[in-house]
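Researcher: Hi, I'm a grad student and pretty new to this. My advisor asked me to get structures for two proteins we've been looking at. I'm not sure of the right format, so I'll just paste the first sequence and hope you can take it from there.
Model: That works fine. Here's the first sequence with its structure tokens right after it:
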Amino acid sequence: MNFTPTIPRHLRLTLQRLRGQFPVLAITGPRQSGKTTLARDLFAELPCISLEDPAERAFAQEDPRGFLARFAQGAVFDEAQRWPDLFSYLQGLVDQDRRPGRFVLTGSQQFDLISGISQSLAGRVGMTQLAPLAWSELPTAVGASYTVDDWMLRGGYPALHTGPAQPADWFASYVMTYLERDVRHITRVQDLSVFQRFLRLCAGRTGQLLNLSALAVETGINQSTARAWLSVLEASYIVHLLPPYFVNFGKRLVKSPKLYFLDTGLAAWLLGLRDTSQLALHPMRGALFENLIVSEALKARLNAGQSPQLYFWRDNNGVEADLMFETPAGLQTVEIKSGHTATTDLVRAGQKSGRFAGDAALLPWLVYAGDASHERSGVRLIGWRDFVLPGAGG
């Protein structure tokens, strides 16, 4: 289910930069994030071959040299991990001809794609990751009609903004396709219903410190299986583990990562949320709003071709910052609150969030579900629509 290429993706700028430097480009990311559409649009002069097509894959496996002889001038290979030998053959081709931007690989299974690239194409590939749509990528006419709760429920998968698909129906199909195609392929899960329960329990822990032992017990699996399944969710771009900041400011630090979903709409669907009236009163609304802001920060980093380098802070004295990142000028802390009004309590939370860093802290940010953005009492209040990471946008 591809979306119209009239929605410009911020990753285009990164791909345009890298196509002049590397003979092979790779676009990874979750299924249905728009990888194929972006590749076809940006590399329209190259033929696009889907290796999920049984006929093409059979040709490649039976006669690899004959298969690749059709693409001497280059090609886009969609779902490249489906033919693992491709990477070795491409190594020979690009070593003979190092023209930049010649081949483009897309894939939605990080384990297989990264493994093939690291073994055969290291140093020859410009790596990128395409997440679902960021807020700033939505067409103005579409985004203007959304409230923050609409955006949390719908999420950023392009098909939900360009056609008649309803989130409840679309996510149900998406999860079943994911379970049947990706999970079965990556790991030997015998009972998909247990894995689906694990996935839903992860959604219920959005924005929380990861407690793998408790997650395993509640799912009914052992801890090593839970760890392996969480790796599957990470490899297929379903969840992101936000690490704690690693610099010791003389405090006893929390060492566990926090669990977030790359797409807030998927997390909301897994929690059984189907409309904004449910979401408004749901005890997970604050966690989902926090997930929304963290995922927007992550998308901005990925779209700019940067490693995430996003963290949180929490010590055993209760001092915390929901999100933080380093800048040349110092540490930027971000407190995230789901309230629509910038109350005194919200401002105080923002003031507190940067105190642990002392002189290294910049003016703290407080992102909230309101619309106004301004500075107040030593805190930069940022309405959710205005939240952008410096230097990491499109």
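Researcher: Oh nice, that was easy. Here's the second one.
Model: And its structure:
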Amino acid sequence: MAKQDTHSFDGATTTADGMMYNGFLCKPIIDKCEGCDRVRPFEDQNYCYSFPQPASKWAMGRCNFATHMKTETKAQGKVNPLKASKRASKGK
């Protein structure tokens, strides 16, 4: 049994500016969105199911909805347990 797509654009209409869905004008995805799990096809274009204007999400850096991008975290240095307990007991 195939997994059903619960996020489809039922009731959406195509306009000259993009796709109208639930009162929002949705723009097609940009190249940075390729591979994201939130991308859904509608007619001959792909659209983001979570945000109507994907280009604006990428304007200031990385899109916070992107499922295909891994976040980079800096590894914390080792903490000396003896020093940590002393700091905790002093209330720092």
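Researcher: Is there anything I should tell my advisor about the second?
Model: You could mention this: Residues 13-68 form one domain.
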